[in-house]
Design a protein that fits this description.
The N terminus is likely disordered. The chain has 505 residues and is an all-alpha fold. It is elongated and about 90 Å long. Helix content is 67%, strand content 0%. Among the domains are: 118 residues, no CATH class; 137 residues, no CATH class.
């Protein structure tokens, strides 16, 4: 019988690491996957995320600490990874700090519950980041109070030199507190990179629940850091990262069909944008809220959110998307002139973005490339009754999607539905069937709520058209009804959702 390596073997680790690196996964996500799949402890998972042996990691540790710092060999590093197991050796905060810098992680990343239970109380106090269980779920607690100098005599009774010395001691302790932070530039950069990865991974969404879980896990890490102490600039960066993660959670929650919970996530994102004072984040949060309002049928609110977001004149492609959303909502309420004006503004913004060196801060879901832009234009022209313009935009959008490194299935499906609608306007039943065939061929789990809504709209328009009572029209309506029903059943809470995809709208 051939022997098979046990789970977590070098073969398994290398295969998992190579697969995740190939799709651009950052180290934090790789380490999380190592822990989930192979039940590694945190420090071991981060080492394997780099692909290092114990001795390779120990050599790097020694190079980082130099002659005056702690040293380690492979055996000792392995014992640090096993602690607090009996075979392990207690890891100090000094060692953890070096390992965190070495792995591109934070101290919190390298500790789990068993570690925290076993740390001395003095070490737990120094970490200074644990959340208050009584604090609200979505709002970070305020930073800890500035410590005061413990003196036995009230400063009101001191005079002369004693008062001056005591004041200087208090100032020195305050300066020590102000200088300490529970995260550094490498940790902040890693958190931002993890957020960028998740925003792009969501577009592929081959396993949306895993992306949702990874996003929640990363958001928890940012929460924990915000419960601690940072310098003002670092704190603003953490709020910016948290804001994008909240917005991503809102988008995913909406696509799963939970409107109320999606609004909660969006409000938390708005709070983070206020705390970070970040115009770009403000704009993307308003874009998210415009999307929520649109799919809830609140078109006036969708217009207001899009207008509020566009007023920030943020860099990157968010202004393109906001004007597209504005055009979409105006078209839904029948304001054709306003819709076309907004489309023109979106085109102007896209031209400015292409001619500048500015790029989207996060990208992925938080970007508006050509295919996404054209999808909105095609839908607006279709609602306006212009079949040629709708077809032209849809064809352009599909061509743009072919050039993108990540296949946005939801946008692609909606473009094909728009093409079918344009052929319906042109009274071309064969064109309708050909365009819609691509969407109907998708697995049922790929037809998200926005895609199903577009399909139902097409069925309604077909029923009201001259071909509504024809054999082709009736067959088309029946096929759409079956596709929507299958998708709703496949995407019900009790059904597997491994192939569910985002609407990206």
């Amino acid at each position: 019988m051939p022997s098979h390596p046990k789970p977590g073997s070098k073969t398994d680790r290398d295969a998992l690491r190579s697969e995740l690196l190939a799709i651009g996964a950052p180290l934090g996500v790789i380490a999380a996957e190592m822990r989930t799949r192979f039940a590694f402890r945190p420090r071991e998972a981060w080492r394997h995320a780099h692909g290092w042996t114990l001795q390779e990691a120990a050599d790097r540790f020694n190079a980082a600490t130099g002659a005056c710092g702690p040293s380690a060999d492979g055996s000792l590093l392995g014992k640090w990874e096993k602690w607090p197991d009996q075979a392990g050796r207690r890891v100090t905060l000094t060692v953890l700090t070096v390992l965190a810098e070495l792995y591109g992680a934070t101290l919190e990343d390298l500790l789990d519950l068993e570690d925290r239970r076993s740390l001395p109380e003095s070490d737990r106090r120094l970490l200074r980041h644990q959340p208050d269980p009584a604090a609200p779920t979505l709002a970070p607690a305020p930073p800890p109070a500035i410590p005061s100098l413990p003196v036995s005599v009230s400063t009101t009774t001191l005079t002369g030199s004693d008062l001056v010395r005591t004041a200087a001691q208090e100032s020195a302790q305050w300066a020590q507190w102000a200088e300490v932070s529970n995260c550094g530039p490498i940790a902040l950069e890693q958190l931002a990179a993890d957020t960028q990865y998740l925003a792009s991974a969501y577009l592929m969404a081959e396993d949306p629940l895993r992306v949702f879980g990874q996003t929640k896990h990363l958001l928890n890490r940012v929460w924990d850091l915000l419960y601690g102490h940072q310098r003002p600039r670092q704190r603003r960066e953490l709020f910016t990262t948290a804001g994008y993660l909240f917005a991503l959670m809102s988008w995913m929650t909406s696509d799963l069909g939970h409107r109320t919970q999606a609004e909660t996530q969006a409000r938390a994102a708005l709070l983070c944008a206020d705390s970070a004072d970040d115009p770009g984040l403000h704009a993307w949060v308003h874009s998210t809220r415009s999307k929520l309002a649109f799919w809830d049928g609140q078109f006036r609110q969708a217009i207001q959110h899009a207008q509020l977001g566009a007023a920030y004149q943020a860099p990157g492609t968010v202004t393109v998307l906001l004007n597209c959303q504005l055009a979409d909502a105006w078209a839904e309420v029948g304001a054709r002139t306003e819709a076309l004006t907004a489309l023109g503004q979106a085109e102007d913004a896209a031209t400015r973005d292409r001619s500048s060196t500015l790029h989207d801060q996060v990208g992925g879901l938080f970007s508006c490339p050509g295919g996404r832009h054209a999808n909105y234009g095609a839908a607006v022209h279709l609602r306006g009754g212009s079949a040629p313009n709708a077809l032209a935009h849809a064809d352009r959008g599909l061509a743009e999607l072919q050039r993108q490194p990540v296949r946005a299935y939801g946008t692609e499906a909606q473009l094909h539905i728009t093409r079918a609608g344009a052929h319906l306007l042109a009274r071309d039943p064969e064109g309708v069937l050909d365009a819609l065939g691509v969407v109907l061929a998708l697995p049922a789990e790929h037809r998200t709520a926005p895609v199903r809504r577009r399909l139902r709209d097409l069925a309604r328009d077909t029923a009201a058209s001259p071909m509504g009572d024809s054999a082709v029209g009736l067959r088309l309506q029946d096929a759409i009804e079956t596709a929507v029903r299958e998708a709703a059943r496949a995407l019900s809470p009790a059904a597997p959702t491994s192939a569910w995809i985002s609407s990206h709208d």
